[in-house]
Specification:
about 120 residues; mainly alpha; 4 helices; about 65% helix
């Protein structure tokens, strides 16, 4: 006995997602925010250790650069994560943006007023 002919069934096509949505899920995932914040904190810590233990002004400058990169990374992750992640609760996003502003004010702004005359930098 012959089986009835099966008609062609088209393959399942998932709903189309825009490139912006795909980039958001890749670069603004919880894992990426956590890794970026951790990297920023580690760079800030490492730069502070280099500055604290250095005896040469060039090494001290390099430590300040490392610390500044860590501050930039942490501030950027908090600010972009707070602005772009719509799925977080409102107060979590507010705290992320507020903490990024506090880091800029208290670490980024006041770091420029450190007396560096003894290091040959001013």
């Amino acid at each position: 006995m012959q089986q009835p002919y099966q008609m062609y069934q088209p393959a399942y096509q998932p709903p189309h997602r825009s490139t912006g949505d795909m980039m958001k899920t890749m670069f603004l995932s919880n894992l990426m925010i956590g890794l970026g914040a951790t990297l920023g904190l580690v760079l800030m810590w490492l730069g502070s250790i280099v500055v604290g233990l250095s005896t040469d002004s060039d090494v001290d400058k390099m430590g300040l650069v490392i610390k500044s990169l860590g501050t930039l990374a942490l501030t950027g992750v908090l600010l972009v994560g707070g602005l772009a992640r719509q799925d977080f609760e409102k107060w979590v996003r507010v705290v992320m943006i507020f903490s990024a502003a506090l880091i800029v004010i208290f670490i980024g702004f006041w770091a420029g007023f450190i007396d560096l005359s003894g290091l040959g930098m001013a």
